[in-house]
């Protein structure tokens, strides 16, 4: 069945880069997503990548996908205290109307 | 970007009562909406997929008679927790896809339900 795994915690200093890792088991995953959740709030879509892409960059965010190893990572450059949140990776399998399968989330703590 | 709202944001109710949670897509039409449940420090678990004009599809283990879902229009889906019990206390989050081919899922801010 589907399974998405993430490390639970990451602690970095302000200004450093953060790398959050995610592995998934189903090779038929089509789209992979990164969401950010701040305390007590809903989820904010950060970025997503198609399974036929290796890398996607959007300002401070870089997503790397290793489809062979089923490994997805999110790199946040110049991490700020406002980046402190829980980051979820998620996968889905088709374009039309399927739900997301989420990992358990990585709590990113940024210290000044 | 697209905005999804939920109402109420927080509700406290007594055991045995029913609670309705609304999910609205404010600036786009959503043929499909999803309802998730999130326990403290846990991931989101999909409860059901809500399609406008048809019955919702429930995930295994989710009681459809307890969690009633109605998707009456392209901008509104409701989740009613019937005969609520303390174990139903949780954070309920809805999401909506923009159109039938949209890749992005937009999430509501969530509803914190506490059953006393």
Short description:
Chain A has 112 residues and is an all-beta fold.
Your description of this structure?
The complex is a heterodimer of chains A (112) and B (116). Chain A has 112 residues and is mainly β. Chain A has no helices and eleven strands. Chain A has strands at 4-6, 9-13, 18-24, 31-37, 43-50, 55-58, 61-66, 71-76, 85-92, 101-102, 106-111. In chain A, strands 2, 4, 5, 9, 10 and 11 form a six-stranded mixed sheet that branches. In chain A, strands 1-3-8-7-6 form a five-stranded antiparallel sheet, with no helix packed on it. Chain A is globular and about 40 Å long. In chain B, the strands form two sheets. In chain B, strands 2, 4, 5, 6, 9, 10 and 11 form a seven-stranded mixed sheet that branches. A four-stranded antiparallel sheet of chain B has the order 1-3-8-7, with no helix packed on it. The model of chain B has no long low-confidence stretch (mean pLDDT 89). By secondary structure, chain B is mostly beta strands. Chain B has strands at residues 4-7, 10-13, 19-25, 32-38, 44-51, 57-58, 67-73, 76-81, 90-97, 105-107, 111-115. Chain B is built from no helices and eleven strands. Chain B is globular, with a radius of gyration of 13 Å. In chain B, strand 9 and strand 10 form a beta hairpin.
